[in-house]
Amino acid sequence: MHIANRPIGRDHAPFVIAEMSGNHNQSLERALEIVEAAAASSAHAIKLQTYTADTMTLPVATGEFFIDDERSLWHGHSLHDLYQIAHTPWDWHEPILERAKQLGILAFSTPFDETAVDFLEELDTPCYKIASFENADLPLIRKVAATGKPMIISTGMASIAELDETVRTARAAGCNDIVLLKCTSTYPATPENSNLNTLPHLRDLFGCEVGLSDHTHGIGAGVAAVALGATVIEKHFTLSRAEGGVDSAFSMEPAEMAALVTETERAWQALGGIHYGPTEAEKPSMRFRRSIYIAKDIKAGELLTRDNLRVIRPGYGLAPKHYESLLGRPVSRDLPMGTAMAWEFVG
After folding, report:
1. pLDDT at position 294 over 90
2. What's the pTM value of the predicted model, to 2 decimals?
3. Structural class in CATH, domain 7-51+87-271
4. Closest Cα to residue 144, out of 110, 109, 117, 119?
């Protein structure tokens, strides 16, 4: 499959997405700087989130609409207030996408309701991301799938039955290109809750590309995911965690993003195929293997012994497996020390 002109699959380096989310801190200038930093870090795409506080929730600040979990990064906010702080104003989308285009980096978004899809279609975004919290919103899935564009779907919290329903719905509505991202919907996530071994199963079960939407710290999970077949890696991205922001605590800084791009590509390159024997690159090293050599000057007719015959480097003589069978046999000619042993030298 392709996103715009970028191929996605195991025959290609991983597609790395920098998720801006709310890390612009309500500054368009900062949002544009994030795009520039993502491009400079060699990320392949920058992703936005398209919603308003009113399309996400109700303006209620009590009960289940208030975040009272002291372990949450967003403790003390109502949902409406949080989304008001975190949302990307819709009139920013066009300049952000334009800056990305100028810098040669793909840009797309996560729509959170049908009005967001209509808006993003006007901007002709190349694909769509579905967030974990919306992966069971089948009306939204149908709306996005009907565009015919690729869909990247995070799988956080979803059961196999729910994912099956989501994928079937997307395909029935017209989406042929789907990427399922293994995701742990905690912020930040821990490595022990990442369960990356799910990736090959996810690919086999749904017959689509798979990847990782990663909320852990560092690049380790992303590199490991590539080893398990991930072709897309998504990480939240910020200019500086120290400057704060709704998602900054689990977001990557530019140097880390650059390392992620480099190391996931190296991991992909290292996978290669199933191979035994020397590679073309290894063949020059074959001469440094051990082999059998004459270790002392000997005369024709003398017997080969452990004193005058040794297994050493380099590798131009007979293979070490023949050593015992040579011991006790007479040589057919004078052999100086350093002679690579050959069958023609024994009687």
Report:
1. yes
2. 0.89
3. alpha beta
4. 117
